[in-house]
Amino acid sequence: MQKNSEAADYRISIRSLLLRPSEKKEINVTIDDETARSYGLPCKELPKAEGLFENRAGVLMMTYTLRCVPELVCDRCLSDVNTEITETFSHVIVTETASADNDAEYLLAPDAMLDLGEVVMEDLRLSLPTKILCKPDCKGLCPVCGKNRNTDACTCVPGEQAITVEFA
């Protein structure tokens, strides 16, 4: 997904890191709200990445911890879900790969520029659970009356047909 043109620029040069074995550089970046929203992930607490770039014998490694509280909604009852995401990521950064098959294994920075915003937001998206629930035993919404069965009792009969509205 592309950032919009008004979002902050998180591109950094990694050229000096690539050229000097044992070179290190700290990562300490907070992704702004506009950038997070441009990736479809509004957040209650903005994504913050802290870590290190390190040239290990000519191989550039990026290791960081990501902390964030994204604005999520329960898949069953549509309630807000306040779950902090804390994940650690490691990437090998290269300026070229031997074949297209290797692209998935590395972060590619062909011009020795790396977009930290893109890396952090893509890692955040991949770290989200596939099924978002407010609690493991969420009862969801009643398919007949639409009440949240976690908080409200409904008098609907199980198996009763939901009312459908057809539009012409």
Explain what this protein looks like in three dimensions:
This protein is an alpha+beta fold. It folds into two domains: 11-127, no CATH class; 139-168, no CATH class. 14% of the residues lie in helices and 33% in strands. It is built from three helices and nine strands. The protein has helices at residues 15-19, 33-38, 116-127; strands at 11-13, 24-30, 43-56, 59-70, 72-73, 80-81, 85-94, 107-108, 113-115. The strands form three sheets. A five-stranded mixed sheet has the order 2-3-4-7-8. It is elongated. The protein starts with 10 loop residues before the first strand and ends in a 41-residue tail after the last helix. Mean pLDDT is 86; it is low at 1-5.
Which features does this protein show?
168 residues; alpha+beta; 2 domains; five-stranded mixed beta sheet; disordered N terminus
Shape: elongated
Radius of gyration over alpha carbons? Answer: 22 Å
* Contiguous helical run count: 3
Q: Approximately how much beta-strand content do the residues carry?
A: 25-35%
Order of helices and strands: EHEHEEEEEEEH
Strand order in the largest sheet: 2-3-4-7-8
Largest sheet: 5 strands, mixed
**Proportion of helical residues:** 10-25%
Average pLDDT over all residues: 86
Summarize the structure.
This protein has 168 residues and is α+β, with helices and mostly antiparallel strands.
Protein topology:
Blueprint: E1 11-13, H1 15-19, E2 24-30, H2 33-38, E3 43-56, E4 59-70, E5 72-73, E6 80-81, E7 85-94, E8 107-108, E9 113-115, H3 116-127
Parallel strand pairs: 7-8
Antiparallel strand pairs: 1-9, 2-3, 3-4, 4-7, 5-6
